[in-house]
Batch of 4 targets.
Target 1
Amino acid sequence: MKARPLALFALLYLLVLYAPIMLLPIFAFNDGTVIAFPLRGFTTEWFGLLLETPALHRATRNSLVIAVSVAVLATCLGLFAARAATRYRFPAKTGILGFIMLPLVLPEVIVAISLLVVLMQLGLDSGIWSIIAGHTLLCIPFSVAILQGSFANMDQSLEEAAIDLGETPLSTFRLVTLPLVAPGIVASLLICFTISLDEFIIAFFLSGNAPTLPVYLWGQLRFPARLPMIMALGTILVVLSILLLVIAETFRRRGLRRAGLKDSGGFL
Amino acid sequence: MRDTSSERGEAPAIVTLQAVEKYYGEYHALRGISAEIRQGEFFSLLGPSGCGKTTLLRAIAGFEDISSGSIRLDGRDMEGVAPNRRPTNLVFQSYAIFPHLTVAQNVGFGLRKAQMSAEDKRRAVGEALEMVGLGDFGARAAHALSGGQRQRVALARALILKPRVLLLDEPLSALDKKMREVMQVELIKLQREVGITFILVTHDQEEALVMSDRIAVMFEGGIAQLDDPETLYRRPSSRRVAEFIGMMNFLPARVTGSGSGRIEAEVAGLGRVTLDAGQCPGEAHPGAAAVGLRPESLTILFDGGVAHDREVRGSVAEVTYYGDMTYYDIALDGAPDTVSVSARNMPGRRVLERGETTTLAWDPRALSLFC
Amino acid sequence: MNGVTRALRSEGGKGLIMVSPPLVYALLLLAAPLATIVLFSFWTQNFLDIDRTFTIANYAEALSDPLYRELMLRSLRISASVTAVTVILAFPVAYFISFHVAPQRKSLWLFLITIPFWTSYLIRVFLWRVILAFDGPVNGSLMGLGVIDEPLTFILYNANAVIITLAHAFAPFAILPIFVSLEKIDRSLLEAARDLGESKAMTFLRVTLPLAMPGVLAAVLIVSIPTVGDYVTPRLVGGSGGTMIANMIYAQIFDLNDRPMGATLAVLAMAIVALSLLWLIARIRFWLWLAEGRGVWIALAAGIAEILAIRAIFMLGPAIVGAPGTVLGLLAVATLGSVLIFVKVPKGRAGI
């Protein structure tokens, strides 16, 4: 395949990929209530309105609480799975790991309704805890994928060397494993946080009285007058997500540099 | 080979292996290994891939459990003793240098829990680095070193803890040829300086011959022969060991009689031979056998050589020139295959050409008989 | 040490212990709930009471009611279209990054491509609704350029809009696995092919493409399975012509208060998707094997014949054996064929 037309195609692809998101800041600052061209002038009115909406603030708080909890929980569980995957052989390994990674390919609807049905059966209230549980299930595969890369990049004999030199398994983890896997841990925390923040379906099915940010957003979509505000909110969310990702990527690269390894291109 | 006959006499055993067995599920990795490794010696475990030498080394280090038998270090049974509590240190094949630490931090890693002042630790690290020739490298980042430098850091890191036994897992296999030769000499010097018992695992028989006081040749989980390099070379205990160590020619033979310490045989290409019983490992029974002789055991009589007791004529099939030596593949009358014969290249001595016939002298005492 | 301690101390034991926290979590929160909805699908609900007598009434209804069948078929069709579009468009981009981008820039490209994926899915779908709207940017610019006089109405609130939106959203999903398998191709293999006399195009067809197939297959799976069960996109941009099975599942649970029915539809949807993908992979292996052994035309004929037969049975079956019988029979026979193919036909050169 020739390079030139391919490059053009790739660039075009990239452009189309970003096109919708580019609209967000355009209309977030647009002085008009209809999301259509032509633009009508600059305003920060919509951002101001965001600050005055208590329902939004509540939803934001819920989302943050959930996202932080999910990040920590999913990363911890992911650590166990990733380490088991890269360091040990055990019976039914492929099956067990495949099962843990299953949420990656299951439609979220299935996960959502199965959790909902169980909750209803057990008579439990849906709400923040159930959303944390559901999101964690969703995020564990991502955490495992990231951390598996970190562990695989680490020469196994490093831990054996530490033990040979007198360290206990626990101190080995602290002095050798953790520093080398830390960038992966940070990346996993950030990615899981982002996924949880943006996740809609499970939150939608399970939120009950505690809406998250996306659920709140959904509720606003039917009001045409609120659309510019939604654009403003969307702009903030997208910028935030991108920021977190850039930080995660920086950590990933730093981790590679520290271990003296070459970049194989991306998390997954 | 190292001249140790005058040095040691019989040093006490520091590692005693008794009937060590190891199974991986159904796979029999170590079969009844029994051996004694003496204090202060340079001991090698030599064998092809998969023979179990690395498994045995790791079992001594404590990273593999054994299924039965015992491993004793300094008389203490090591059953259930974790690697971090054994008086051994292991130099890993990949060197396992901690990439997130400096060279000095790597070398001083095992001293973390030692009862030494920070000043003493610093000095110990400096001395260890000097000993391996990396005196100025302390502050360097560990991930930016060459292969040879990494190996030295691994050595310093292990030796600084003054283990009773230093275990080395194929330490030179990752280096290129020149570097390997340099490091072989350095390792010998180091061992002599430090006086610690070294146990080295390698698949390179030349390496083992050069560096070791004694070698255990392993095949398929068992020790085939345990001897010093010269005995291993001259008196291999089986055809397989003979083939593994150095180059060996084999000629078909028939044992015609044996008794009172002598063996009579007919050898293809060489005629009738009388051998000493010691030249045959095991029993010599009448019938088909093979005679082994090293390339240097046949001497090419370049024009004008002195007539010898045993001579034979042959024609040159192949010539391989190595600079200091030339190896000839020579076809002997009556022998089915060619034999490889080496000749030192000297000023005035010409290199034979393919198709030439020549006379070779040989000594019956250089033969080994394999039944 | 007794047997139990030995087992626990062994590598296998330690591994199992290490993996147990996430495993237990997944069993509790995934396996158990999934089992529950399977259970639910065999119960019925009257208003607020769940009747726990085992019954297959839900399944019978789901399989006979033409509405559900239509929704299921539409979901499969949309998913297939999205998968096809996404994977075909993704391949050149993945190829470009793998073969024509300097190594130190590759992760940058991948990073740029995955960023949109990490932003809110909801927002992106909503933006597409904005873009494709009657008075939105697409129509606006097309009219402004004079290409059309009236705003296009067929680009929103139907299946097309769903396809466009989903294809856009799942693009990165397709690029990554294809990229990974392209990266794994040893470049010296391609040089060897050229050295042996092949042109660039033939090298691509004979070496690159077959070796990239596992990645393409992964991309197909990663895109098709989640898209079948998508809820947000059909809801926002699908209108009535673009509703998909997930919307119906939601409706059953929340609007119609029939959780067992929702469960039934979910289970059926999952089963149908899984068996369909099995069918697809098995047939691809079979057709490739035929093509290699008996020629491309035979393979094509076999493929077309089977697909036509399935269509015929699907259309004529309900009149003869009833809808549920047709669907179940079709699934059973097709799956039997798939199993047979996996057992008898060896893996092809393309790794499928």
Target 2
Amino acid sequence: MEALVVKNLCKIYSNGKGIKEINLNVEKGKIHALLGNNGSGKSTTMKCITGIVFPDSGSIEVMGNDLRNNDPKVKSRIGFCPDLPTLPKNLTGRQCMHVYGYIRGLSKDQVRLESEDLLEKVGLLDASDVKVSKYSRGMLQRLDLAIAMEGGPDLLILDEPTAGLDPSSATNLRALLKKEASEGQTILLSDHQLSEVERLCSDVTIINEGRTVIESKMSDLLERVKGSFKYVAEFSSVNDKLVCDIEKVSGIVRVDMDHNYSNTLIIYTNKRDQLNEEVSKIAKVLGYSLYSLAESRTTLEDVFLSLVNTEE
Amino acid sequence: MSAITGMVKYQGIIDLKAAKTYVVLALVFFLAIAYGYLLPKFASGILFVYTKSSYVWMLTTSSIFVTVIAGLVGLLVGAFIGSDVIAQEFESGTIIKLFSLPIRRQDIYLGKFIEKFLFSLVLSLIFVLVAIICGYTFSGNQGYFQWLLPFTMGIVLLIIGFSSLGFLFGPLVRQSSFVFGIIFGISLFFMVIYGIIVSKVGYSYGTFAIPFMNMSLVPGSIMNYAINPSGIFHFVYTSFGNSRAYNISTWEYMILNVVFASIEILFILGLGFVLFGKAELRS
């Protein structure tokens, strides 16, 4: 069953930014990654799903229920953490849990029990009586996650939950998410650490310039490049003709300029045999030298960049 | 627990933890002491003639400077409690959390209003009780308190009236300090307009329709009616060198102020309700 179905979602802000056509299907019990460059529309998509902004058109279904009119009954099945956790600064962590629990319609006893349980789960029980204004960014993220989990929502939506966290806090948070998912929690998250997303998520949707580029299982997406090899080739110089000529070689899937290093190309190929000789030969014809050719692992980042660059 | 009740609790706990609340409490205490003790003692003979007899200080003050005190209570207390009720949520970003929760925007607004109403009621009771204690200390037993409940409700209406501007401008301006300034600016603007109209044209039913001035007059007019239901309220208004006398029954005076003030408050809150429901977060 699908926990979330988004169809043709469109929201354009007055400044012209926004999303044009987002399609998204999140399966129940899975961790689903929503990936895209800054400004691609990830946060707007999440804000539309959670009712924070009103979409111009499109439909959103949560656990089979239409989210039109921001029906509180349907929204009670969603827990949301925005990219910047903003909580009332004068309150303690525990008080925050209580006030948001009351708004969710929980009874006093439920609020008390769930607060203790969730604060313990996110490792904030000891700091629960400290004012939120004294919390570090990592503590705020964890508290926000605990608040989002109050009332046991079916779907957790987390907008860059590890942004601004130190590596160890980020690792702890991801471990917590993984544990929640293993217990059946559905999670939709965005994250810029693609290597971590690759390990954490089972499904992925990539969006670019407000449109869905691809929706896929993580394994299928990586399968697309499985069997192909990635090589990093350094030349004395590179130009478009060199790229074009290498792409014509049989078995070569794609050739990209490396934006981080000049005179370096990234070559995706299905065969490894005689690659060095053939590339070297092409370079020589054009008057260049091949300095090095090293194999590299194909990652989600490569897939992401190739899809986003193709779109652009 | 319903979401609205939860919202009332949310706002109540936030208010209890805010330093501003204690500033407002101190202000209410000061204004009550000024009303019950300082002004009768030190301003007698300047603004009014104080007579030390049964309940007269209340009656005397109600006809003259309750407007001044009420205006200050409404303006200062109303601005303090109303300026951040909506704007602060946008300013601090906590509105994102609220909008993501399973509660309708209208219920967020309603919950906040109910909490502010209850808060105003508590402040009004404190104001009236402290004023009575001060008056008792200064004048002896008043012995006549049938005005107490309606007068307290008048103070509630007054505070809600001024703070309603925070509900209206909060979703638009989204900066509590600006909203505070707007409440001051609009209130003072209408007070000046009132002064000009009354001094140039005199009183008419139209003058009771001037917003914020009528709200300031509500507690005093309720008290006058409660003390003297069949009486005629006579007062002289002097401003810009012109002096205007006016006679009106205490019943008519109270009804006009309460009705006009209520209509305006409902209009302001209704408009704020619509604006808050449609408020868009900027990208």
Target 3
Amino acid sequence: MTDKEIIYYLQHNKYSSSLKGLYQFFPLVKKHITNNNGTNDDAQDIFQDVLVILYKKANLPDFMLTGDLKSYILAISKRCWYSELRQRKKLPMNNTDIEITEELQEDEEQMKVADAAFSLLGKKCKQLLIEFYFKKKSFRDIANALGFSDEMVAKNQKYRCLQKAKGFYLTILNNGSNDK
Amino acid sequence: MTNNTININRYLQNEMEPDEKALFESELKTNPELGQEVSIQKQLIKAAVNAGIKKEFRKAIRKRSARRKMLTLTVVVVVVALTLVIYYNNTAIPDTSKRNKSFSDSSAGSFISPPDSSLNVPFANYFIDGEKGGTIYHYSGSVLYFPPLSVVDENGQPVKGNIQINYREFSDPLDFFVSGIPMDYDSAGKKYNFESSGMCEINAVKDGKNLYINQAAQPVINLSTSNENNLHNLYFLDTMNRRWEFLGKDKITAVKDLVKTESNNASEVSREKNKLIKPVAPIKRGDNPVFSIEIEPGSFEELLVYNGVKMEVIDESNYRRSDAEEHWDDMKLEHSSVEGIYNITFINSNRKVTYKVRPVLSGNDYDAALKIFNQQNVVYQQALKNRITSEKSYSDSISSINKKEQQKWETENNENNKLNAMILERNKYMRKIMELKIRLSDTVDARQSKLAKEAAKQFELLQEELKKDQEKYSQDLSKNNEIIRSFSINRFGIWNCDHPMIPNLEIPLFAKFETKSGKELFSLRPSVVYKGFNGITSFTGQVIRVIPGTENMIWSYYKGIFYYFSFQDFAKADINKTTKSFTFKMEQADQPVSSYEELRKVVEKL
């Protein structure tokens, strides 16, 4: 599968098809991580993070693949792994040998807090927020899918879920800063 | 929701007009709290999107790894198959060309997979006249009724002339085992095990062509069984969609108390309750002897209204004057069969004497009684008239209200009568068959002496079989717990009276099978029989389900050999709720088994 085909599949939400091509890069990612104090499980996790970043990147309106996908993926995985190691306080952040992509320039630490806060939500809240923000479904469809009586209930529920996530976010953030 | 929240939502959803957006962004710069709120929400939305993407990829990864596992398994299976081919030094693929294809076999493919077609319950072949229909008496005691023109061809045209009906029943775990019919049922995603109270397969052919049922004249199967559980439902095996189709309930009739016709006439009951008392016309006393009696209130109301009633002997010739002088301990007055005539009985320790008498009056008592009678008679006649009118309207209303009920009752009654007649006829038929067989066996006896030794042996075998048949028939005729399950069929195929049970006690077990000598049996397809449960569960993979602490038996048939793990073996095996895997050391039947009868003999000994 060519790089172009993989990007096409990512842009058209063909996860399985894109994975077929993307998995050829997994051994490369794995090798890098296991050579740098990581385990096989770490490699799996990082590869998933890479997939997320790549998917988002590919779906940006002005996305253009300039180099080859293999180098691009390796660069993202190196970045992700260093970030993870830094968080584990095993390594001082040193960007010198890592190609920085704009997608990775966002505040990673804060994003990690948001991801953690989201992961603490209940199953239904998670599903509701994913359906709304990721799948861009209407409240009516969400109400039908999740068994709410009408779209107003779904809308209110979404507000509550987001508030709940915000509560978790602030708690994690404050506890984190207290540790310091 | 506050205004701020709404605005943040609209901003993040890109729903603001450009002017509004510019204003909001300028506020963001000056209001750090609002800025923080927007930043947090932005990150949380990103987190939701990230989670969504991860979820989709995880799904894809799972699918991919499942496919990879299947691929690996296929490779393993191929390797195992190749090993077996080499091991047996001939082809390991069973010879399917020998199969006697039935309707279900041909259309269902591997959905119905008997361990070997030669072991399957044999079909009994009957013939009916397509035009006239017919009744089939199966040796199990079941009666099949085909109405006239009940069988049609593929174009829906009624088939005339001789039609061959092929019929067989599956009544116990061995039958289910050899049939290869799936004995589980899926309902709303839940899997149930079937406990069967009777299953049968039926089809019709003419000139080698499969025939169908005329929907306007559906045949009826009256299945003989001993299970009277009314929780059992009726199912048809839909081989096209590979599932059991639920079709309601069958009708259960216990043969020991054949359904009786009962009178249910409500008006008769009410007549008894509100009985009108017909006044008795007073009669003037004649010359015959009379008895003075005391009428107790509530006993003879028609006489109670008159004063001075005496009982006059009707036939004087029977009368003994001395009886008037005798002391009687007791006296009993009763209505006779003739209106207005009574029987009077006098009793003492020595004698009992009865006279036919009629009530009489004399003098003023008669005149007064006549007046009372005339008055009462008018009242009675009026009441009678009213009664007739009300009864008529009552019966009219009853008939209109209960007409349907009555019709239903009558239909049911007719059906019951038909069924009863059919059962009686069947019993006669089976008795006749039995007698014929006995006679045949006598002839065989007579001829036996004349024949050579070899022939004699054959006759002996035949005789033995006949004897068994006789025992079977006499058992069939005498079984007092026989139940008839009746249902009409709208398709030819496999019909089942079953009760789906939730297998909540079973535990999954990773099973390996070996011979007693420790040789691994790779290709065994095990079937588990739970004692006391009239069903069977067959497994294709290596995970089987058993009920620890109860008696389980495992059967399998491979290349002419019947392997089994008996109830006793299971009791000795240390299998409990926490057991995850077990190697079953399978016993094997002493001799190769190649027919249903041979297999039954083996199983009956277990």
Target 4
Amino acid sequence: MSEEENRTPTAVEPEQVDAGMHALVRMLKVLFFCLRILIILVFVYLLFSGMFRVDEQYEAMLFRFGALQSRVLESGQGETSVLTSGRWYWAWPYPIDWVKMIPAQTSASVGSVNVFMPWVNPQSGQAPESEGPSTLKPGTDGYILTGDTNIMHTSWELVYRVDDASRFYLDFYDDQDNEKQSGKHARKRGTELIIKNLLCNAVIQEMATWTVEDLYATSRVKTDGGIENIKDNVQRRLVALLDEVAMGIQVQSLNMLNLQPPSATAEAFEEVNASTERGRSEILEARTYRDKTILEAEGRSYQIINEAKSYQTKVVESVKADSSYFETVLREYDLNPDTMLTALYTDALREVLALVDNKYVVHKRGEGQQELRLQLSPIPEKDNRPAEVGH
Amino acid sequence: MSEANKKNGFTHWPVVTLALLVVGIFVVAMVTFQVKETEYAILKTFGKPKVDAAGKIIEYAPGLHFRWPFIDQVWRHDKRLQCYELSKGKHEQITTKDQYQTVVSTFVLWRVGDPGLFLRRMKSTAEAEKNLESVVRNSRAEVIPQHNFSELVNINSSESKMKQIEDEMLSRIKATAMQEYGIEVTKLGFRQLGFPEAVSSKVFDRMKAERASKSEKYLAEGKSEAQRIRSEADRKANAILAEAEAEAKRIRGQGDEAAAKYYAVFSKNPELAKFLRSLEALKISLGANDTLILDTETPPFTLFKAGATELKGAAAAK
């Protein structure tokens, strides 16, 4: 020990070494001083590197020597193993402690595009031909079978959120862990694949009970008369499957992105759509005719009834006026019949003569027939000249 | 040790501490092993799993555990549920009970259920999946031929038994996988369901024929419905007009009835009434375009006759 200590630069007596040795000693002193500083800095770094914050989008779990750590909740609600977001925590450096961040607050999505859609050569860079391949190859082309044994292509998208971070991570394989060990091309077998397969399973099971027409309409009438929706039914099945395996995720939305027939039958489907549209158009025209006809009939009926009412008023008032007039005339007539009759007659004749443009007065020449030639038709032009009197 | 040496030793405490720390970490790393919360760990001494007094393989709980360096080896396997979509038998053609050719694709969710047995029987996850595939394919080949195609695909939800078929396959797999390989299968489901490639072209032909039929049907239904709507509209319109005519007649009748009460006054002098009505009719019946021919016997045109200026009354008075 003492011999070893004697070998250290500080143990060397300055008077026993030459100038070069002095320089070496000074340099080693500086180096050791730097090393001390470095060690202190490393300690300080280790002490503070354990501070970490769980971002708003995440929840975290702290593992010490691999075991999940729990902490007591402040409000005396027992223990929790989940480190909630938006707060600071402290952990020992790896490998004593390590933290797993779970994106629990953000939404993630899983789609079924490759499973139920036809294979398209990515090299072709062209849209599929209208009359597509006459067959579909299992394993290459995806599709679903409908309840009426038709083949359809569809794609779905599920948006979900992790609502139980510990269950999601501890009970289900995490592909990120696998990627760290086996690289980016490691085969997927974790949560994303599980959710995708459960989604596909729900879609297959539900669509296998629907007809193509109902799928196109996205809804159908139930046996009890209610309406059910394909999206809701698939979601119900999916939620049941997720509950069955207890994934700890919450379905936020599920959407059918696409539903299309195989390209080989697309034309036939389009023809059905066209016929349906033509049928609808016929019905629409008929409804327009119905509305027009009924409205016209209603209008005509109002007219008929109003004419009748008008007639009713008119006939009553007219007769009332006539009777009143008659009584007045009768009183005068009883007093002086001839004068009254003559007055009435001449008044009437004056009115009539004033109305009629073409008037002819002929001399009566004794007994027998008298010839009179007049142009009665066409209607003679109105002449402003005074009426001629025949002689 | 001299005072100077003691002083120097104290002066170098960081170096000593660092050295001790490094050595300590190295020693701890050699004699301990960590078990993660997400994995099973078993210690193997010279390749043999460590067993307890009852002869059962010891499974280590999550945390830090002791081991003899170089002697003990740690075997680990993820204990979480994972998905396997099968490899060779990913898409397999199976004939149903009613002789339909179907192509099915399934997935299984599995985890290590008995780590000891799994360790004994399996070398790796790949081998486990290979054995699992064999079990799943056997189960599929046994169960599906016992069911009609209509139990897989049916527009009547109550007759569709896809879920029951899945459960039937799962129940067969579960026992075998656990007893033979220590694998716990928790879920089996269909991933895809279809027809062989050759059959798909026949299906397309049928689909086209069905679509053509539906096309005609929908058009005919549309026309039929349109005709029904039109005839219904005509019927309603006629009914409305008939009702209106009936109502109009009733109103006119009421009017005539009311008017008849006033006609009674004409009975006081029917001749005068007739005369007045005739005058009224004359006024109404003639218009501007009519031609009126009168003779000089008709007053007041008697004035055109000779002696019209002599009044009969005046002459009589004279």
